[in-house]
DNA sequence: CGAGGATCAATTGTCTGACAAATGAAATTT
DNA sequence: AAATTTCATTTGTCAGACAATTGATCCTCG
């Protein structure tokens, strides 16, 4: 938890960390205006460009926003769920794409997380959530759909399932897991038979949620998890054979 | 998913986004060296400070690292789980602390996620994980422990439980949920009676995992979830009364 | 010929000073 | 009183410079 090398860090990194810690500690509250760049330069005994680099670091993390003009400046940003989604998805995508996480591992994590919210979703899902899921099922049944569109619809279906739990923290956490998987899923070529099976399972899930049967939804998700992993294994085998 | 206002964005933000997209798309691969700051300044037709601001934005997201010296420069960073943890915890902490997420909601999310990995942990936990959990239980039983230390130990216990699932993606996702809750948990004052009850439930969880009984672990986690929420409600009531 | 040290060139880190652009507030005019 | 102009403040961008770091190169000496 401690900073690794505070002595060898850039000045801009040190300053950014100072300000970040102040925000986390609550010393700087939401919408509070930070001193102007010139003032901070004096305060930290550095030049304005150095302060600016620090501020850009914070802006990249959505911790502050800046505004030009007479009453402008840098303001502490209220971290929005949308901002958090974006960061989460970027981070997860990169983690999965370049950190030798196997499809298997990612898939297991995704379905474990999804199953966590199945009972909540069964209890709380609105008619809207159910309607979204049904609509995506219809879309997925269309013949001639590209694999990419099929995957996108799959993501939308599962997002609706997660959102049905009515817990924004869960939605935010799972957005990363589900969306970051999409590039990996896109590598799979779905046959008509595969799609029919998946659509069938999706329908069973929707039915279960409609009847507020969390237990049943959980079971079907388990089956879907197994099936997806089987498909991925086959896709991987084919790819290996062809090279 | 699309950028909101590319036309009103800073030059440094635009450049940072360009490079970020190139990294995500795989056009820039891990450990690849970016052009020098001067070269990029020419390439993008901006000044060097502007390029530097862009690079600092990327560095803040752990997308690149920089090195001084003759063979130095900016290199595409391999996103490490550790980096991802850090970002996740910062984001989640801020999201919970200043986005009016109720303790109830956060708590529900946390235990839902934890229960997701209970069966996996029961199956795969090593003796090490179990030993860590037992050790933390002992620490939690010490009389005279401050509330903060008790909470820290609680986090360590649950981290061991999650890590026991042996899925780094789950560990990374849950790190945020569990650790971000700590500041909220610290607001609770635990009586000796509360602590005994929690330690008892922790012991039951450890026992269940030792016997590879995921079902049982899940049940106890459910109880712990309910109990924690009760305590939080009481703490909130007391706080409300005193003000 | 090899090893060790001095030199060098490339690159990032930092500073200074300047000007442009935006923007809300104050002063002025109608 | 309303509309317009002016103005001060602040961020955005630029140019050029120097310091610090660091690997590579070259040179000297054994």
Description:
Two copies of one chain form a homodimer. With 243 residues, chain A is mainly alpha-helical. Chain A has two domains: 66 residues, Orthogonal Bundle (Arc Repressor Mutant, subunit A); 161 residues, Up-down Bundle (Four Helix Bundle (Hemerythrin (Met), subunit A)), CATH 1.20.120. Chain A has a two-stranded antiparallel sheet. In chain A, strand 1 and strand 2 form a beta hairpin. In chain A, helix 5 packs antiparallel against helix 8, helix 6 runs antiparallel to helix 9 and helix 7 packs antiparallel against helix 8. The longest helix of chain A is centred in the C-terminal third of the chain and has 29 residues. The two termini of chain A are 44 Å apart. The N terminus of chain A is likely disordered. At the A-B interface, helix 1, helix 3, helix 4, helix 5 and helix 8 of A face helix 1, helix 3, helix 4, helix 5 and helix 8 of B. Chain A binds a DNA duplex (30 and 30 nucleotides) through helix 3.
